[in-house]
Amino acid sequence: MDSGILYLWFAYPDDLLDEQAFARSLDLLSEDEREKLQRFKFEASRREYLAAHTLARTALSHCDPIPPEAWHFRTNSYGKPFLDPPSDLFFSLSRRRGLVACLVARGAEVGVDVESHERAGEVLEIAPRVFSVQERAQLSSMTGSDKLDRALSLWTLKEAYAKARGMGLSLPLQEFSFIHCPPRGMALEDNTSTDSGTGRWRFCTLDHVGHRIALMAEFQRQPHLEVRAMRPFQVPSLLPHDPQPVWFPQESA
């Protein structure tokens, strides 16, 4: 049973330009994670990976009294990470050059995706390949910044949902839709789901440091969102802002 609380954590890869912060973070990784880190060709990619995996461990330890370095992970056939041994904690990661996000919940599947505002134009260019017929129809009636903003929100929501379903981009992106439908706001329609269970999902978008963040959670009611940041040499972690996102589908009055 979900607790009704979502924990959203942020980290900033450029914080790891500090050699001491990089070394402290590296100490938290498993041997396997360290080997993967070394495979990245570029230092920026290494910082993103290190920030993401350190963040996941820190966020999980905030929920359960286990040292960050003691967590163990496995992946499903689509590459989605889970805790090993299994736990009632579920988490999702997303990383970009300037921001990493980790979403954690107890007893509920979750998904998070992060995308830079600067990439909205690129997202719009690939719309025919990744958006559904219904999504493209609604986009076609829009212009300018509104169209770019909608495309960015759709892309992050679709990625977050695919992660929450545990299938990533193996889930056919054109087969499910986030449809704007006033006055309810937005609804999820999914032709890939065999259980007609789209109503069990709650989702929203918010913005932070030039990025659009989409959150997806398998909650029966509107979640309570707690937001924290992992910054080097700052204890406890700071709350960067107090977002009050609008969750969909909206609850009846």
Can you walk through the features of this model?
The chain has 253 residues and is of the alpha+beta class. It folds into 2 domains: 1-105, Ribosomal Protein L22, Chain A (Alpha-Beta Complex), CATH 3.90.470.20; 109-218, 4'-phosphopantetheinyl transferase domain (Ribosomal Protein L22, Chain A, Alpha-Beta Complex). 30% of the residues lie in helices and 26% in strands. It contains 7 helices and 11 strands. It has helices at 19-26, 31-38, 43-63, 120-125, 127-130, 133-140, 144-164, and strands spanning 5-11, 73-75, 81-83, 89-96, 99-106, 110-116, 176-180, 186-190, 202-208, 211-217, 224-230. The strands form 4 sheets. The protein has a 4-stranded mixed beta sheet with strand order 4-5-1-11, with helices on one face. The two termini are 24 Å apart.
State the gist of this model:
This protein has 253 residues and is of the alpha+beta class. The chain has helices spanning 19-26, 31-38, 43-63, 120-125, 127-130, 133-140, 144-164; strands at residues 5-11, 73-75, 81-83, 89-96, 99-106, 110-116, 176-180, 186-190, 202-208, 211-217, 224-230.
Topology of helices and strands:
Layout: E1 5-11, H1 19-26, H2 31-38, H3 43-63, E2 73-75, E3 81-83, E4 89-96, E5 99-106, E6 110-116, H4 120-125, H5 127-130, H6 133-140, H7 144-164, E7 176-180, E8 186-190, E9 202-208, E10 211-217, E11 224-230
Parallel strand pairs: 1-11
Antiparallel strand pairs: 1-5, 2-3, 4-5, 6-10, 7-8, 9-10
